Amino acid sequence: MKHLLSIADLDADDLHELHRLTDSFVEVGQRPIPKVPTLRGRTVVSLFYEDSTRTRLSFETAAKRMSADTMTFSVSTSSVKKGESVRDTVETIEAMGIHAIVVRHSSAGVPWQVAQWTSASVINGGDGWHEHPTQALLDSYTIRQRLGSLVGRHIAIVGDIKHSRVARSDVLAFTKLGAEVTLVAPPTLLPPNLDGWPVNVSHDLDAVLPKVDVCYLLRMQRERMTEALVPSLREYTALYGLTRRRASLLSTDALIMHPGPMNRGVEIAGEVAEWPNAVMVDQVRNGVAVRMAVLFLLLASEGPVGE
Amino acid sequence: MSSGSGTIVRGGRVIDETGTRRADVAIGDDGQIVAVGPDLDGTGATTLDASGCVVTPGFVDLHTHLREPGREEAETVESGSRAAALGGYAAVVAMPNTEPPIDCAAVVRQVLDAGAAAGLCDVRSSGAVTAGRKGEALAPYGEMAALGVRIFTDDGNGVQDEGLMRRAMEYGRTMNAVMAQHCEIDSLASGGHMNEGAWSSKLGIPGIPAEAEELMVARDIALAKLTGATVHLQHLSTAGSVDLVRTAKAAGVRCTAEATTHHFTLTDECCASYSPLFKVNPPLRIDSDVAAIKAGLADGTIDAIATDHAPHTQEVKELPFDEAPPGMLGLETALALALTELGDLSLEQIVGLLTWRPAAIAGLSDMHGGPVAEGRAANLCVFDPETAWTVDPARSASRSRNNPYAGRKLKGKVRHTILFGTPTVIDGEAQR
Fold this sequence. Notes:
The structure holds 2 protein chains of 2 kinds. By secondary structure, chain A is an alpha/beta fold.
């Protein structure tokens, strides 16, 4: 595998292989010195055109635990502010001698463009509304860790599906791994056309919750109010928020997940986020191991360098 | 050219609105056709070989972005004229979304002068419907019409305000103006970058629904009925738009319509590459829309094939998909795309869509598109309908390279183009 751009490019076997690799890196993370020399001499660049603390830190931690060198290209302090194009930036970084670029951009498709302009491996760290493949890997890994397998599991993804790269990647990963997915959202927050999506759709969260093994909540962004997609946050919470009352409709071993950052009191009640089966901390912890697995798969195959 | 002896186009099959016949075409030094018939005596004349070729009126494009003034790094009147000549065009109508926009006599004159200086194509100018293309107040049609402007459009944008559009149609009637509309309701389309549908949903790119176009098509048909004005609906892209125009024409509303080559050859699936080369406005739609456009071209609902030739530099076409400007080149591929993709249409229909029908809409029938006959201006295209070739963007005469058809195999190639008796293209090579 040269790049990780989309879950759409992976089949179930690829996902299982990444999960198995992740198992071994979870183990590494539990060691007193959680570091292996696997990627010594490799350089991983974070090219983040959009603010993201957790994804960037997670990738950088993963790279460092594998002894790769890391560089951060921060848009707010860089030549991009002076008008440099993505292509020029990529070609400049490329000339420094690098092996992987993690790209985050607010526009869908930028990682595909970057892949045309570099010989390094490109990892999609989130492109617009489109995909966030490592999030789907860590989400599916977390479910597998807790529930054993995704086969036959029923997962509800609740909230702003339309604008969510997490939802697009999760739907692909969960269904490829054998889960049944139900999207729960008002019509204004669903993609306009779901032809070809292997999902159920519901607008009634109360009816869905008792039937699911996982309730995956998405972040509700405040700007959706100004776009007239929902009348108010208050109404959103009333209809689609995982309130305490609603959470009690879940079966006792159902998982509650969220990609973060959470809006407590909007899509999830503050106390529900603290419930034992709310696994947001596991998601973050597994995120580092998953990204180590991705870096391993993309970069370690060529053998050690710098010997 | 040798002087004093004219030119003879020999051995071709002439197709014009009067029919098809095997004939030579003799052109005098005054730029007029002096004889049309079999085996003409061409003693002393320069001969242009047309064997195996079709001889037609020079093509007329109702929709060309020449980018001058303001965006000369992407195209100039001269470079665009050369691309037009190579595509078989004798006349093009320049769209007004330049910088500054073509919304007054001074800018019209600048464009016309640049076209005359280039001498490769009869460059006509459109004029903006509203001052500055801002959609707020009428532009001065009178001074532009006095320079020959016939088509008024804010192309690039539709005129959003219904009341203003009504006034534009009423006021323009006295100048014999054709109000041409880029049909797009901003409040439905804004923020969109491709067709709204299964692909946009999957790709996570904000979409533009077909209804954003269709609502304005319906509105302008209603306004044409109200005002008695003639409205020309630009670059139809949806099945619903074609149906609306078909119904309006049957009801006697004075409306005409064009479709671009890309809207009958490409679909929104192309955007899956995330290449901004496939970003265009109106956006590429779906298979059933492509089929409807073809059906509209076949049954006469759509009057003309237009290019919407829209050059952009490599830099801006390498921006992220949602930041890149819409538009694609078209002048040099239009004929071949029509011949390759419009298999249900006769050669005569295709020639009509490229020549006499757009010429009539643009008010150019006295010089362009009309019969290939004695006494007419010698604006001609000679093309081989069977020559197969592969699109290579690097070979374009345009200053830009935003051609979405790179590597595509097409049939049909322009051999010679003649502008007022002077060959602008001979054997596929521009003459200046």
